[in-house]
Specification:
Blueprint lengths: L15 E5 L2 H6 L15 E9 L5 E9 L3 H13 L17 H6 L25 E3 L7 E3 L2 E3 L21 H7 L4 E2 L7 E2 L2 E3 L4
Antiparallel strand pairs: 1-2, 2-3, 4-9, 5-6, 5-8, 7-9
């Protein structure tokens, strides 16, 4: 819908909202949710929020998470915004037809996607809406010689560059303060982009 001409532009700064999954969003989520997924659509929420891009400007983005963590997620992303942590992209995986590899290759940060565990069986924590991946290129998944996404090889030595998450930094602390664990602390595989409520 086009805003009315007299509607003032939103003030600069962080903004967020939490919405139920309405029929339009449910239809859009056809590539990431289907009957048989471990959570019903009624237990998920669409979170829209402001984030800082690598260009230093404010951008609007969104992610789908479990209803139980939606308020915490907005608090975490407010912290990231206030700390100036840059995010390359924050789009639903539907923009990539639910393809996690394509989303990672585009350096897209995302949350819900009803899919198997990477490199394993069973449902990923993303299938429950209780996991978030941040800046996958700067924070790749590692298992043996496998690096996902492939562009992440440039960041294996964890350089002090924008978007790179490092042990004890403001990003890890923001999630930890809300009870989320970081996959960068795993011994194998190591998943620098991954934060989850369960620690898996």
């Amino acid at each position: 819908m086009v805003p009315e001409r007299d509607t003032p532009a939103p003030a600069a700064g962080f903004h967020s909202s939490i919405s139920d999954i309405d029929p339009v969003t449910a239809e859009r989520m056809a590539s990431s949710w289907r009957p048989g997924c471990p959570v019903p659509l009624s237990d998920l929420r669409l979170v829209t929020l402001t984030y800082r891009g690598f260009d230093g400007a404010d951008h609007d983005g969104g992610l789908v998470v479990a209803a139980a963590v939606a308020t915490d997620v907005t608090g975490i992303f407010r912290r990231l915004y206030d700390d100036g942590y840059p995010i390359a992209s924050l789009r639903l995986v539907e923009d990539f037809a639910g393809d996690d590899d394509a989303s990672m290759a585009a350096d897209n940060s995302s949350a819900f996607n009803c899919r198997p565990v990477t490199g394993g069986g069973g449902f990923s924590e993303h299938s429950h809406g209780t996991a978030i991946d941040l800046n996958p290129v700067q924070n790749p998944y590692l298992r043996g010689t496998l690096v996902l996404p492939e562009q992440g090889r440039a960041y294996l030595d964890r350089p002090a560059e924008p978007g790179v998450i490092r042990a004890g930094d403001a990003v890890v602390t923001a999630f930890a303060d809300h009870g989320w664990s970081w996959g960068g602390n795993w011994t194998g595989p190591v998943d620098y982009q991954h934060f989850s409520v369960s620690g898996r």
